[in-house]
Design a protein that fits this description.
Helix content: 25-40%
Shape: globular
Distance between the termini: 31 Å
Number of strands: 7
Radius of gyration: 17 Å
Structural class: alpha/beta
Length: about 220
């Protein structure tokens, strides 16, 4: 794999007991046609073989880095730790049970952000009931394109929230300039990032980053 000491994009995966999901998620990153990246996996005190899966993949790809929390600290702390250890100009986060279904995701986001000098670039995802762990090991990208992209099990193409749910901003839907992320974290302080929050942990952070961004686009 192509690698430089100063990657353009850092992808942070926070995982907790993600043994069955991690390999397909990482493979979807490795299959991108934009190669100047680093992959930072932060394990949040998993009790399964998540760490072993990552270590095995690290043997074949030196772009992969592993951090471990030791104990469960929550996804906000875990994602933040990954970003603080990142080197890329831009950062993205990925949940361990999600995938990049096409090979040009990074190229499109990077090109758009650079062309318009964006601090923050939002995008949408496709939701499906297909489990990552059920996708065939071989040629899984082709499986995704035929089974998920062409025939997605969704009501709408974009993320839609129930009226009862006031939260609608997630880190994994944004391509973020790393320094914007870091400066926003500093603004919120350790008291915020050290909290172990079960749900909607990044809504406040995304709000702050949106306010601090000089140029943003969705």
């Amino acid at each position: 794999f192509y690698y430089r000491e100063n990657p353009k994009i850092s992808i942070v995966i926070s995982t907790f007991n993600g043994e069955v999901y991690l390999k397909p998620a990482i493979r979807s990153i490795q299959n991108q046609n934009f190669l100047n990246i680093e992959i930072i996996i932060v394990d949040d005190g998993s009790k399964d073989k998540s760490v072993e899966v990552v270590k095995e993949l690290m043997k074949e790809d030196k772009r992969i880095k592993l951090l471990t929390n030791g104990i469960n600290r929550g996804t906000l702390y875990t994602k933040t730790r990954g970003v603080l250890n990142a080197k890329g100009k831009y950062v993205m986060t990925l949940d361990h049970d999600n995938l990049y279904a096409t090979k040009d995701v990074f190229y499109k986001l990077y090109t758009e952000a650079e062309e318009h000098n964006l601090d923050l670039l939002g995008f949408s995802t496709i939701g499906t009931r297909v489990e990552v762990k059920d996708i065939p090991k071989n040629d899984f990208l082709n499986y995704i394109k035929t089974k998920i992209i062409k025939k997605p099990f969704i009501k709408k193409r974009f993320v839609v929230f129930d009226k009862k749910d006031e939260s609608g901003t997630f880190l994994y839907l944004y391509f973020i300039k790393r320094m914007l992320f870091i400066n926003s974290i500093k603004q919120l302080g350790e008291e915020f990032t050290n909290r172990n929050i079960d749900a909607h942990d990044d809504t406040i952070l995304m709000f702050i980053m949106s306010r601090n961004a000089l140029r943003l686009k969705h």
